[in-house]
């Protein structure tokens, strides 16, 4: 991983990879969502409302996966002082927050019909809302720390501590009685029919590739800004 | 009760607007930042 610690080497790979991930992700999202919206079969119990699954579930996975990425990058920043780890963690936060917000919004719309309520303070929904607040706090803390000239250690510690919420979100449906159903996909297989499972996995892969493209674009932005700031400091000093 | 297809359309529209919006905003910010870095790099 330290091979990519050099920003110039990282940028050489990131530039072509950004476009590839973005276009491949966009195409897969369009195909999977089009299939989910118009061609996938209705659910025997929920009818057409189950079509929300193709955007709601990938949003939930990426909201959670985003924070796992922040925690891993934060650990790399604290333990190995990897120069790009802090930048990667800050780059993940914005798309992670977007997907968490999309998960909550689409879940609320789905719940309004399936459960007869837009919101309930149950384990899954509340822990997901906490995750959104953690993302917003992380973004604000990262920005404030950067403006004060900090090295991002406080933000990294916050990223690690916030990871405590991830198992709470994941296992909330097992630990408490919730309106939300238990996991349909696990290590032992899936309870979803293949005609719905494959488009769901394709949508998740498409959104993941797109997520990667946005993270790379944000990393390139942060690196370019860092370069400008360093240059301006040098010019002011001479 | 709201019709299912209105709720489904709202979910897909929110996702589309969110992802497209973030893509464009991130791409514009990246182009601006990289252009500023390149411009400063050319100065003696």
Total of DSSP H or I helical runs spanning 4+ residues of chain A: 7
- The overall pLDDT of chain B, averaged over residues, is 91
Percentage beta strand of chain B = under 5%
Oligomer: heterodimer
Secondary structural class of chain B: mainly alpha
Radius of gyration of chain A: 20 Å
Overall form of chain A: globular
Gyration radius of chain B, in Å: 19 Å
H/I helix tally of chain B:
1
Largest sheet of chain B: none
| Helical content class of chain B | over 70%
Average of per-residue pLDDT values of chain A: 91
Helix content of chain A: over 70%
Descriptive key words:
heterodimer, A: 238 residues, mainly alpha, two-stranded antiparallel ribbon, B: 44 residues, 89% helix, rod-shaped
Written overview of the protein:
The complex is a heterodimer of chains A (238) and B (44). Chain A is mainly α and 238 residues long. Chain A contains 7 helices and 2 strands, in the order ααααααββα. In chain A, 76% of the residues lie in helices and 2% in strands. Chain A has a two-stranded antiparallel sheet with strand order 1-2. In chain A, helix 2 (53-79) crosses helix 7 (194-237) and helix 3 packs antiparallel against helix 4 (123-147). The longest helix of chain A has 44 residues, at 194-237. Chain A starts with 6 loop residues before the first helix and ends with a helix. By secondary structure, chain B is mainly alpha-helical. Chain B has 1 helix and no strands. Chain B starts with a helix and ends with a helix. The model of chain B has no long low-confidence stretch (mean pLDDT 91). The chains are: A mainly alpha (238), B mainly alpha (44). The A-B interface holds A 22, 29, 33, 37, 47-49, 51-52, 55-56, 59, 94-95, 98, 101-102, 105-106, 109-110, 112-113, 207, 210, 213-214, 217-218, 220-222, 224-225, 227-228, 231-232 and B 1-2, 4-5, 7-8, 10-12, 14-15, 18-19, 22-23, 26-27, 29-30, 33-34, 36-37, 40-41.
């Amino acid at each position: 991983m330290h091979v990519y610690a050099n920003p110039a080497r990282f940028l050489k790979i990131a530039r072509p990879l950004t476009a590839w991930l973005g276009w491949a992700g966009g195409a897969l999202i369009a195909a999977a969502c089009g299939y989910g919206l118009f061609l996938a079969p209705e659910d025997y119990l929920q009818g057409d409302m189950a079509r929300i699954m193709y955007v709601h579930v990938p949003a939930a996975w990426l909201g959670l996966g985003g924070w796992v990425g922040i925690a891993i990058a934060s650990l790399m920043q604290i333990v190995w002082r990897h120069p790009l780890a802090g930048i990667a963690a800050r780059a993940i936060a914005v798309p992670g927050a977007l997907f968490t917000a999309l998960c909550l919004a689409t879940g609320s719309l789905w719940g309004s019909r399936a459960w007869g309520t837009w919101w309930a303070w149950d384990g899954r929904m509340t822990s997901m809302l906490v995750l959104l607040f953690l993302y917003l706090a992380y973004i604000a803390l990262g920005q404030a720390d950067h403006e004060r000239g900090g090295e991002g250690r406080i933000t990294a510690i916050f990223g690690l501590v916030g990871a405590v919420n991830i198992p709470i979100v994941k296992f909330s449906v097992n630990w408490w009685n919730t309106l939300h159903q238990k996991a349909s996909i696990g290590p032992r297989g899936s309870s979803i029919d293949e005609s719905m499972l494959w488009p769901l996995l394709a949508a998740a892969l498409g959104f993941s590739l797109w997520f990667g493209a946005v993270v790379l674009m944000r990393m390139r932005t942060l690196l370019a800004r860092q370069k400008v700031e360093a240059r301006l400091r040098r010019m002011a000093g001479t | 009760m709201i019709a299912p297809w209105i709720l489904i359309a709202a979910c897909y529209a929110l996702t589309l607007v969110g992802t497209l919006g973030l893509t464009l905003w991130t791409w514009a910010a990246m182009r601006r930042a990289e252009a500023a870095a390149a411009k400063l790099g050319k100065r003696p």
